[in-house]
């Protein structure tokens, strides 16, 4: 499969939101909210456009990843900048072919080159452990509420890069949406019907 990785452009936004919606629809809950999250993250001051990447195959967008800056605040009130990525999605027709892996590995290398130290996220341990992610407690990082669990993970972009970074993790507020927000967003866009029988 001959794929191309490139940066997302504004004219791609609706097509990418459709892709995200198809990738996540009815996976974790009825419908999905990830396409709205992506829409909001692009408008956030924490958005990192240099890490907003697409995968194309024969000029069709089949995968995407986007990043935002987040912070880890230690007990002395010092903030440490880390990254958070997501949503990351691959069109259902192209899943399990290495597209997501290529996006994640390429973007992680680019993130290090841009000077970032590490990434903190919520996700599937079974999937993300292959990229070096481990329980965030290994770095002394907790959720905003001071909790740890298996799906809350972090990775250093180079060994030792997160030395001295510990505390509570605060992602961008755009990750929090309500069902009402999703309904309003769906009404504002011409999304195709993905209702399942």
TrEMBL record:
InterPro entries: Acyl_CoA_acyltransferase (IPR016181), GNAT_dom (IPR000182). SUPFAM superfamilies: Acyl-CoA N-acyltransferases (Nat) (SSF55729). It comes from Proteiniclasticum sediminis. Residues 3-158 form the N-acetyltransferase domain. This is N-acetyltransferase. Transmembrane segments: none annotated. Pfam families: Acetyltransf_1. One of its GO terms (molecular function) is acyltransferase activity, transferring groups other than amino-acyl groups. Gene3D superfamilies: 3.40.630.30.
